[in-house]
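in:
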């Protein structure tokens, strides 16, 4: 079962299901502000009583708040500022934070790199919002460290990601069959909506945020590991299929390849837990994945435009432009050009940004690669830290001691932890991550996994040292 004590987790999930149910009964480009308000106040009351539930509320509110749809012209406040109130509630209830020294050093280093990239950027004034988003992302690391150090119920965060995957997928499915582009909910200017032209809109799923597949993929990996390791396999299979359906409809090529590779990684790590029943279920999952993509590809001939490699080739042509840009401004290679400079600096007013966005097709809207964007915005030192953490975590996820020495509330993490890092790394090669709302959720979950691995390693080292002392005393 999705185990959250005192049923607060179930209440949170049901509460955040209300706006989705409202959308189901009234699908269309309309405001669901009343259910958003009910959801917000109920979740705030729970978060005041039990501050650890402020984090699931924060995650879920980030994802469903665009359904507010500019009611009373408050869309910007509801979508961008109200979610931060949950973080205030968490820090208020946490009293004294407990963060290990190594984590403090990492946080200080990341803050220093970002701050230097900000103050040294010629577009300093345009990047303050990006700096604020980066601070929220850093707060996710702080919250993850505090959670694990205080031995709180990690299932609260783990299950909130699963809940998020369910709600996202249901919204994608509902919007798809009602021919609604969910990203239109955020295309608001002066209270007016600029809706997509359905005649040219590809027959694929949509969501408020284009990179939401990062969250869907992580939720799929968590549920997949539960199918293998937990007893209630049927329930987890149903949850997996619901999320998978939404994931397939969203149809992101990179995410599809990444999730297949990551599921195989997850299966390899969990191979000792595979029973005959599990093997049958895995065969069913593999068949449904294959059939699902075949059906989606056959829905409309326009979907084949999404399969060709033209967009990937365009991204490769950006490499020469980026090299040219760093030759023009070599300092940016080391110090970066500032947080979210690719999104917030007008290329017509900045030659460096124009260079890094220029491909064979012309000037792109942004650089569709999380890894390359981090290199441009924060410099090579930030990118090295990013890659080191990911590579070590992927390698550590394969270690046997991670499973044998991870106990209590974190015992399920080793079965999917490395797979999550692998999935995000593969996606970030050709898909944007940046410091946006989706990245906050991704960083929170990956930080929890990374710190859990470190905790298991300390546990193993402690046991090894104890055994050595016993051997030396006996001899």
């Amino acid at each position: 079962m999705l185990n959250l004590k005192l049923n607060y987790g179930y209440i949170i999930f049901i509460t955040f299901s209300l706006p989705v149910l409202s959308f189901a009964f009234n699908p269309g480009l309309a405001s669901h502000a009343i259910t958003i308000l009910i959801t917000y106040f109920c979740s705030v009351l729970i978060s005041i009583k039990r501050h650890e539930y402020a984090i699931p509320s924060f995650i879920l509110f980030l994802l469903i708040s665009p359904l507010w749809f500019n009611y009373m012209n408050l869309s910007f406040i509801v979508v961008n500022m109200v979610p931060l109130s949950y973080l205030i509630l968490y820090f208020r209830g946490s009293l004294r934070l407990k963060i290990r020294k190594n984590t403090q050093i990492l946080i200080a280093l990341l803050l220093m790199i970002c701050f230097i990239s900000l103050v040294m950027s010629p577009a300093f004034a345009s990047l303050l919002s990006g700096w604020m988003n980066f601070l929220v992302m850093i707060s996710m690391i702080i919250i993850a460290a505090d959670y694990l150090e205080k031995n709180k119920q990690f299932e609260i965060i783990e299950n909130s990601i699963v809940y998020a995957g369910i709600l996202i997928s249901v919204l994608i499915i509902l919007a798809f069959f009602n021919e609604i582009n969910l990203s239109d909910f955020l295309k608001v200017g002066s209270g007016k909506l600029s809706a997509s032209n359905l005649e040219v809109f590809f027959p694929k799923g949509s969501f408020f945020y284009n990179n939401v597949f990062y969250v869907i993929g992580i939720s799929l990996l968590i549920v997949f590991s539960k199918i293998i390791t937990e007893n209630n396999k049927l329930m987890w299979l149903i949850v997996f299929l619901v999320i998978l359906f939404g994931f397939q409809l969203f149809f992101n090529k990179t995410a599809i390849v990444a999730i297949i590779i990551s599921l195989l990684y997850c299966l390899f790590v969990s191979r000792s837990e595979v029973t005959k029943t599990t093997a049958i279920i895995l065969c069913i999952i593999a068949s449904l994945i294959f059939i699902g993509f075949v059906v989606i590809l056959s829905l409309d001939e326009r979907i084949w435009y999404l399969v060709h490699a033209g967009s990937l080739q365009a991204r490769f042509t950006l490499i020469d432009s980026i090299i040219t840009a760093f030759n023009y401004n070599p300092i940016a290679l080391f110090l970066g050009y500032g947080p979210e400079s690719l999104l917030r600096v007008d290329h017509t007013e900045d030659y460096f940004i124009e260079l890094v966005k220029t491909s064979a097709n012309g000037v792109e809207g942004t650089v569709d690669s999380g890894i390359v964007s981090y290199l441009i915005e924060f410099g090579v030192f930030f990118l090295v830290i990013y890659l080191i953490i990911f590579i070590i975590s992927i390698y550590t996820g394969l270690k046997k001691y991670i499973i044998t020495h991870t106990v209590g509330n974190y015992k399920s993490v080793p079965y999917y932890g490395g797979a999550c890092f692998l999935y995000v790394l593969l996606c970030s090669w050709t898909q944007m991550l940046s410091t946006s709302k989706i990245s906050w959720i991704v960083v929170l979950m990956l930080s929890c996994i990374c710190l859990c691995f470190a905790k298991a390693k300390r546990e193993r080292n402690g046991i090894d040292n104890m055994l050595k002392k016993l051997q030396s005393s006996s001899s």
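note: Strands lie at 188-189, 192-193, 358-359, 362-363.
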